[in-house]
Amino acid sequence: MLREEINSLKKANLELGEILKEVIKQTMSNQELCTQMAKSITEHQKLYNRLDEENEILKSYFYNRINNLPYEIFDPRCRHKYDMPKLMTEEETIDEIVLNRKSISRFGDGEFSVMFGKSHWRFQRDDAKLAERLREVVTSRDENILIGLNDFYGDLSHKTEREASGARSYITPQIRAEHMQLLDTERIYAQACISRGGTKEKIRNQKRIWDNKECVFIEGDKTRMGVGNDLFDNAKSIQRILCPSESAFDNYDTILKEALKLPLNKTILIALGPTASVLAYDLAKAGYHAIDIGHVDLSYEWFLRTGSSESAAVNYKYNNEYPEGYIVEDIHDEKYQSEIIADLSKI
Q: 59-84: per-residue pLDDT in tens?
């Protein structure tokens, strides 16, 4: 009997997925679609309630899907109840960076977890000062500094099923409420996901950011952006400031002081976990073009290995999204060594 119930639940899930696609395409004034959707949700809930405690994974999956459904369809008539941030597209975000020389600080689950005192990343422990600075940045209003958010607050039809399931699992009512304490539903935010490739088109768009630019990478000493691949082959030049791979904010003042020695004409690309969000902001305030670029290089490495955005092992680069990715092989690369202008990783 339990197997039949699970199969029925899976079938209902597929039906709901198809209905969602139609709902998103059309207005919510279509009463027939609304009725279909309500019926499907009701069936989900009935079947969900019949699953016993031995099926916690299945129960969690469908609980998250049902719970997040109102935000995914976003009925305009319920906007007062289901407000969420407005986001630019990835292309619009990169246009702002390239054409208008905007800097960007990005905020994802890692940054929000630090701000609410529950960091779950190995590379950054909880830090009250970092949390305070991140809150300052995410609520800032400098017209030259974009604040980037992940696109998981509403419609998830643009994501793979695996990505959408992960987003639903993360953005619980409690997490959503925490985010909305700091966000403004009347503001237009940038896309944080400009750091993620996964397709040739997205990668081509990313490369516009550093095209023919004199770049300085401020990165962890095991990040090694561009090493072993051609992602930055269109940059005019590359220099590097190396920082600790974990809890870099412990040495923030030293890192900022070193960065402020750079000429203002440099394009600064920062891959340093949550510290990057603060550093990009402070450097932009000082007149630099500073980009919190995140996993742009790792994402490219994954694409080269899988042809998609799925994570994969990259043995010679710190990879927090892969099992034991903090274990990194040594490299011997003369070009990489020649690009290092400061090594703050051992301080």
A: 566 566 656 666 655 545 455 556 78
Q: Which residue from 33, 148, 32, 145 is spatially nearest to 86, judged by alpha carbons?
A: 148
Q: Is 181 left (phi over 0), alpha (psi -120 to 50) or beta?
A: alpha
Q: What is the 3-state secondary structure (H, E, C) of 158-208?
A: CCCHHHHHHHHHHCCHHHHHHHHHHCCCCCEEEEHHHHCCCCHHHHHHHHC
197, 206 Cβ separation under 8 angstroms:
yes
313 CB neighbour count, 10 Å cutoff: 13
Token pair listed for 26: 């059309």
Average pLDDT over residues 119-148: 90
Examine the pLDDT at 45 and tell me if it is beyond 60: no
H helices, E strands: number in the chain: 13, 9
The model carries a pTM of 0.79
- Determine the pLDDT at residue 134: 97
Rounded to 10 deg, the angle between the 2-25 and 56-73 helix axes is: 20
Q: Which of 176, 196, 197 is nearest to 85 (CA)?
A: 176
Q: What is the mean pLDDT of the chain?
A: 85
How does pLDDT run across 297-326, given as a tens digit for each residue?
A: 999 999 999 998 888 989 999 988 888 888
Q: What is the Cα–Cα distance from 335 to 247, expressed in whole angstroms?
A: 27
Instruction: Give the model's pLDDT for residue 24.
Output: 54
**What tokens appear for 63 in the block?**
């609980």
* Pairwise CA distance, residues 134 & 79, whole Å: 28
Q: Residues with Cβ < 8 Å from 96, sequence gap 6 or more?
A: 88, 102, 146, 190
Strands 340-343 and 267-271: unpaired
